[in-house]
Write a structure and sequence with these properties.
It contains six helices and 18 strands. By secondary structure, the chain is of the alpha+beta class. The longest helix has 25 residues, at 213-237. α2 crosses α3. The chain has a seven-stranded mixed β-sheet. A six-stranded mixed β-sheet has the order 3-4-2-1-18-17, with helices on one face.
């Protein structure tokens, strides 16, 4: 009889706890990153190497193709994070963007216009003229400061032996008159308030693997070190600073630039105070990817967060979970690259050679 009463008591306690958990409601925001892959307009800019992406260039880039590209990208951005969050991402980091004008055209697309996105963008020294940027829903995010932080790397920093060159649209440019400096994308730092909470975002597009992964690794390690210094400086001002660094890192979660320079950990319980957590390493362990090369998948596109965002208290915004947005309409269905991200070709205006990534930030609502 006592055992029966104890069993009933346990069931009652469990049911009460379950109902309490079910009664909690959360505010949710999606945060995304997407490499837009060659989001160029059709106008030839004499100061950059954009000739390929003009009507007379190798890609025969016409107004009609450009408009279809915008339409395609807007569909993706409007759907990232669904169905868990019916709203489009509050924050979207982007790369391979020619200028502010293409972003203004993008946010005017019918699928995005009603979200009322703002733009934060700087022209970078990249010689192809491609930049990084942040789109944000003005209703939820109020930027207070932003700056572009240059990455200084030089040809004579190379310490690895010559390798077979990997295919890349992102050629590293050498400026011999400037101590062999390699001009790459700046790192974009934004501070602002997500609703009533201060957060910091770093948007990245780290140096490519042009010349080979090992040979070019020091450049991306330098990018990771710069990221770490930016985060350290924010944490010196506020030890509880909430920082998200996102981008196309041209390295996977296991590479030195991420694991050593940035110090990202795969498991929450391994993250030290002031450390960083990378939810995409576990996905990489499962064979998932955002980009494919010679039938091998890797996750170059990542969103890495500071320890302050993984604490178990949801009274303020915290990380919930992450994902790769790889819906069927984004996947090549035939030919040599079947199963790869559906990118642009001379015969088809696709989406991108990368899948976008996202995380959710949630906060318990006060009832």
């Amino acid at each position: 009889m006592k055992l029966i009463r104890l069993y009933i008591y346990c069931i009652a306690i469990f049911s009460f706890s379950f109902l309490q958990a079910q009664s909690k409601k959360y505010t949710i925001h999606s945060v995304a990153f997407y490499n837009f892959e060659n989001l160029f307009d059709t106008i030839n800019d004499p100061t950059t190497h954009d000739d390929e992406w003009t009507p007379n260039g190798a890609q025969h880039w016409t107004k009609e193709k450009y408009e279809q590209k915008l339409k395609n990208l807007s569909r993706v951005l409007s759907e990232i994070g669904t169905p868990e969050n019916s709203n489009a991402p509050t924050l979207i980091g982007g790369s391979e963007i020619e200028n502010r004008g293409v972003l203004e055209d993008l946010i005017k697309q019918p699928k995005l216009q009603h979200f009322d996105y703002g733009i934060i963008h700087f022209d970078s020294p990249d010689k192809r003229g491609i930049d990084v940027a942040l789109l944000y829903q003005k209703k939820y995010f109020k930027p207070t400061s932003y700056s572009n932080i240059p990455l200084y790397i030089y040809k004579n920093n190379l310490i690895a032996k010559e390798e077979k060159k990997e295919e890349t649209d992102d050629e590293v440019e050498i400026k011999t008159e400037n101590k062999n400096r390699i001009f790459t994308r700046d790192q974009l730092l934004i501070t602002g308030f997500l609703e009533d909470e201060e957060i910091h975002i770093i948007v990245n597009h780290w140096p490519s693997r042009s010349g080979g992964e090992k040979k070019s690794s020091p450049f991306r390690e330098a990018a990771g070190n710069l990221n770490r210094r930016i985060i350290d400086s924010l944490q010196q001002i506020n030890p509880n600073a909430k920082v998200m660094t996102m981008g196309d890192l041209n390295d996977g979660p296991f590479n030195r630039s991420v694991k050593v320079a940035l110090g990202a950990k795969a498991k929450k319980n391994e993250v030290p105070e002031f450390g960083t957590f990378n939810p995409f390493e576990e996905m990489a362990n499962k064979g998932m990817g955002t980009i494919a090369f010679r039938d091998s998948w890797d996750i170059f596109d990542q969103i890495i967060i500071t320890e302050s965002l993984i604490k178990p208290d949801f009274s303020t915004f915290k990380f919930w979970k992450a994902g790769i947005f790889n819906k069927p309409f984004l996947v090549q269905t035939s030919g040599q690259y079947k199963g790869y991200p559906l990118r642009h070709s001379l015969t088809e205006v696709g989406f991108s050679d990368h899948f976008p990534v996202y995380i959710y930030l949630i906060k318990e609502m006060k009832l």
